[in-house]
Amino acid sequence: MIESICDSFDSRCTGCEACMRACPRSCIEMVPDKEGFAYPSIDNFLCISCEACVRACPNNMDVRYEDSACAWAFQEQGDFALRSSSGGAFHALGLDVLARGGVAYGFAFNGCDLVMRRADKAADLDKLRGSKYVQGSIGDSFDQIERDAVLGLPIVVCGTACQIAGIRSSLSALRDKVLLIDLVCHGVPSPAMFERHVRYLEKRFEDDLIEYSFRDKKTTHWLMSKHFRYRFARRDDVEGNWKADAYYNAYLKALTMRECCYRCPYSTVARCSDLTLCDFWGVDRASRSIDQRLGVSAFIAHTDRGRAAAERLEAYGVMHKIEVDDILKGNPNLERPTNRPAARDEVYADISRTGYEAWAVRQVTLKDRIFAFVVDSVPLCAVESLQKLRDRKRARSERVERR
What UniProt keywords are attached to this protein's entry (predicted)? Predict the structure, then answer.
């Protein structure tokens, strides 16, 4: 009988599902814990103690980091960047693989559930764009990716670093046939919490929620794109600053992450992927020729495969070579995990005790509402000037601290 798939299981398991996929007897299923995070559960009646799950778990392997070779800033052409969370880099990589007769894998919502999907045409690829701040499930895509790799199709797979580590482990000898892309990630809240939030919004606005956008740029600037939009079946859209939404508010205050996220071994510049994608918050320091309003991506190539894929993107938008250090200044999770606040101890228990609605009302304070109102009132023409003032103030503070 297998006691635990990895050491310190409760605080290190990422829920990547590689163990479930590796089991030859299908005796592992992912079961939500009391907070709603999925963990592998072994049916000991069926288990033959072969330890395939133990061998597949990325936590039991030395993390195979790839070097950080090259970096670029990128903005997809046309209105594609505006429809993406940052600059449209993943969408462009997907278009490139489709043009070569291949397939792209990324995450899309199925109701309240975030699941990995396969895209073999542009319409399906469009559903994979945009940030989704909730943990997703790879599920059957493990097998689909392997089948496509055996067929020799060009393949792009995008997910968080821990998901990419699980897929990398699963692919084994087929690893070199797949372009693996990871996203700079702050951490993930539980799927159960997101579902409760959706139900809360539907009750509050008396309508069915058909789309929840975390990084909407239709009416705001990319530099202020921590801006939600709810699309309902019948009523008008509702939008606003992240501090006005309880779920988003708690997420960006790092109150609701999976425990492993606070000790993430992948929060380093060297990664286990071919390419790493993120927002390029330092664009004003590196390039004046990109329209910041639309959004700007940065990506780091770690392998020759990643470098070749990146260089093909010149056909899909504006691209500039940059230094990795330019990216680090606005992406702290490339150097360290998200800090675990003391309030994380109680947030899920508090929701269970008082109910989600009562918790959501308390989570968005008067100070949060005032902040959201002020930020939403800033005209687009003033955003970049205010950002420069904030950057100068931050730089002065850093110089004072160094003294």
Answer: Iron, Iron-sulfur, Metal-binding
